[in-house]
Amino acid sequence: MFHPGRYNEISLVGFVQTCDSLYKRLRYFRASVGNASLIDHVLERIIDDFFAFVLVLLTLTILDINPWPLLVSVSTLIVSFAFAIGPSLSRYIDGLLMIIVRRPYDLGDRIVIASSESVADPDNVSSSWFVQDITIFSSTLLFGSTNEIATVDNGSLARSRIVNYNRSPNALVTLKLRFCLAPQEKILIFREAVESFVQDRPCIWSQVMFFRCDNIDKDGLLMEYVLRVRHTKAWQDASSIMMNRSELFEFCYELGERLEINFVSRPRRMHVTNSFAPSTLENSEAAAASESITDMPTAAKALLLQMNKEKAK
Q1: pTM of the prediction?
Q2: DSSP secondary-structure letter at 38?
């Protein structure tokens, strides 16, 4: 709960942060219990109405009063009404079953909504929503990036893929690193240094999952490595995880600079050639343009020499 350091010590700041997180969980738990009580009360009323309807039919049957002719007489109206509200009723039932049976999220959870056919994207944290209110008809969501509030029909969410970051296990942070064609000894030193960096921060990082090479480009003198580290928190606390991710990335960059293995893209050389060949001497403008192109390297050299002289002064 408190996540002690490497030497089983807890700082005062860490203790206060843990107490604050526990207090927030308690507040969300109380709000979730109150929201669940409201939903249960509404469901209880629906079940009571259905039970009362069945009870009336049984009472009429016991009193030798046949209620079926009355129901059959209004069956035409019921069927036409069912065709009119069929799609809406279907969505309402889907949303009701999602809230009662599935319950994919609670108050305060960070979620990401996507279509069921879409491909999972690990960078969807920036497009996540916080659940503010839940009813049997709709859900109120808060967009994490802009604090925009939206009310979404539960029926439209029932057939979507909902990723709940609060219920997900510890976050996996992935870094894509680009190295030059370096000796294997330097790569091993880099890996050991990263593992030591992670072990020195047990309150933040859990372990290094893998560090592997995904691609080697011999022509471009490039090696692409993937580093994946497990965080101690879930993506529910995405802000602190992204801060820790940036610190880890800065450490990897500085370590690569010291080992001289960071990949630096080389500028491509461009050759300017004279591709103009006037067919006749009458086209004097084309001839002048071609002469100016051939003079461009000389002018560039003169300009560079002049700039160097000014810097020397």
Answers
A1: 0.64
A2: H
